[in-house]
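Retro notes (design track)

What went well: tokenization of the new backbones is finally stable.
What didn't: we kept losing track of which sequence belonged to which structure.
Fix going forward: every design gets posted as structure first, then sequence, in one message. First example under the new rule, 272 residues:
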């Protein structure tokens, strides 16, 4: 039985006329269906109510749209309510690895949503904490990288009851979803996106250290120098030397709305 869609939110790529036009099409299609639409600032379109991004989690949403590239999708997942599924549309973006459909079939896709011809796809997320502070969740990756370019820090990596001490510029802790992102650019493997595992990719290690594919378990990191902590390539935090970071699975998976089943979705988006 189809879930009735009554309330939606639309998050678009910043300064993208294409994304804005696509958002307007969404509200034009759904308006006659008595669907309440919230447009996230600075987006302002007809048949919608404007709302701030940080206020999204207070809303009772049936569905969220991310209109743009993968960056828009990653940003949306950090702010929408945890149980809200997201439909990602690649308009004005680049590869759109996370997206479902392009603008050419938007009308068909929304019709499928209204008819209940879709399914939910869950993806694991990870989070990092330091003491009593928990940082925003990451769908793609958490990167710890040096801030002093004249010093190579010693990183202590504790995992699976073992500990590795190694000098390197930093480390990428990626989900399978994020394996096509930053870790891929430094030579990491592409993981099937529905796996529940972690990928650890060292950045410029002093002595060669392999990429590690690990069970989804706790990972602890500590650096001899001040570092920058980067969440999904979008939010940056300062981490002081000797502060211990703990990385775990986030309690709420990201939920995508999908129209069509694909085997290895990343291959199509990466051009293979």
């Amino acid at each position: 039985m189809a879930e009735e869609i009554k309330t939606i939110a639309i998050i678009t790529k910043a300064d993208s006329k294409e994304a804005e036009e696509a958002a307007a099409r969404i509200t034009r299609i759904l308006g006659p269906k008595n669907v309440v639409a919230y447009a996230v600032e600075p987006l302002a379109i007809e048949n919608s109510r404007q709302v701030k991004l940080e206020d999204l989690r207070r809303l009772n949403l049936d569905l969220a749209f991310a209109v743009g590239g993968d960056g828009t999708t990653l940003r949306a997942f950090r702010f929408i309510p945890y149980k809200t599924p997201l439909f990602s549309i690649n308009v004005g973006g680049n590869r759109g690895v996370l997206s479902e459909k392009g603008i050419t079939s938007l009308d068909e896709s929304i019709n499928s949503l209204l008819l209940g011809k879709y399914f939910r796809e869950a993806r694991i997320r990870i989070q990092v904490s330091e003491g009593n502070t928990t940082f925003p969740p990451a769908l793609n990756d958490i990167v710890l990288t040096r801030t002093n370019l004249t010093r190579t820090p010693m990183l202590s990596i504790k995992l699976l009851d073992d500990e590795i001490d190694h000098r390197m510029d930093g480390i990428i802790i990626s989900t399978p979803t994020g394996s096509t992102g930053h870790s891929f650019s430094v030579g990491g493997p592409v993981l099937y996106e529905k796996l529940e595992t972690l990928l650890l990719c060292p950045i410029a290690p002093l002595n060669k250290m392999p990429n590690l594919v690990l069970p989804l378990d706790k990972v602890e990191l500590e650096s001899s120098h001040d570092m920058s902590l980067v969440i999904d390539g979008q939010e940056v935090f300062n981490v002081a030397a000797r502060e211990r970071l703990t990385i775990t699975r986030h309690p709420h998976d990201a939920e995508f709305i999908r129209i069509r089943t694909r085997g290895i979705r990343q291959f199509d988006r990466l051009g293979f």
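Added context from the reviewer: The chain has two domains: 7-123+253-270, 126-249.
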